[in-house]
Known about the structure:
Blueprint: H1 2-5, H2 26-31, E1 37-43, E2 51-58, E3 64-72, H3 77-94, E4 102-107, E5 116-121, E6 125-126, H4 132-145, E7 159-161, E8 164-166, H5 174-193, H6 197-214, E9 228-230, E10 239-242, E11 248-250, E12 256-258, H7 277-286, H8 296-314, H9 320-335
Antiparallel strand pairs: 1-2, 2-3, 3-5, 4-5, 6-10, 7-8, 9-12, 10-11
Helix pairs in contact: 4-7, 5-6, 5-8, 6-9, 8-9
Amino acid sequence: MAAKSEKLQRYTSVDYEISGNFPLDDAVFEILPSGTRVISANSYGSSAWSITARVNVENSEGSTTNYFLKCVMEESGSAQLKGEYYAMVELWKTVPSLVPKAIGYGKFKVESPTTYFLLIEFVNISDRLPDPAKLGAQIAELHRTSISPTGKFGFNVPTYDGRLPQTVDWDSSWTSFFGNLLRGILELDIKVNGKWNDLEEMVEKTVNIVLPRLIGILESNGRTLKPCLIHGDLWEGNIGTDFESENIYIFDACSYYAHNEMEIGMWRTDHHRLKAKAYRREYLRNFEPTEPVEEWDDRNRLYSIKTKLMYSAHVPGTKVRNQAYDDLCYLFERYGNQLE
């Protein structure tokens, strides 16, 4: 991480010394509260797509506060961090006890390298697996409490799962929204892993035949689905437990309003440690499955395909791509001939 941060250039006009190994920029100072004095800035943690730091500041009354700074040195960083900022803001507005407060985002004033940044409150958290009962209760509260500002599924700005964009345009139909999301992720996967005709054919069959039957019935014949705010990438790496309070925090969000069950589709994937059944069980104790309950596991499998294809688009050659294909085939075999 230190080697990464050396690529950044210090660009500040402050007239005092700042300790630490992480170069700051005037753009960061501009979004800090008035009267703030930066004491130090040091590389902190690790990230696959960004450069991160811990910034220690002192306010006009002498109290100290820590912030977490994330920087991305790619043009996509502008939309990526904008999406994350608004996702974190929406989550914090809904359940502030669950999310560090986002302070702001922007672009470094230094011209080279082009650098975008996001600043949020720093929380001192452990990376141990979260308590299933606590996590299930808090995520269910997020889903119950949230209210879509449009009454539709989607989000007001594009959000990025990792370093890749996802299709989150507003849509009144969950079936239509999920189909567009799935097709968009397939396109990202093909760009990285190449064409696979069988996979492409199965995705189209899923969108045109399986989705109307498996999730279309959730919003037909007078039934409706509430669009719930989800984190969007809730794996163990984006969840932490406060060392002192034991509170659970979630971060690195790529949110949108969705069927609440979408959130925990990734909790059945082999490449994530939250696959233990206790996590899904505890969530369902706090938020009952949508009817028909007997098809909940198949919906959970369907929603996990999004995670698997997105992972495949990030990790070329992974066997997870084949797992996504197998899941598509399984669901088509079960629901391909059931469309009313």
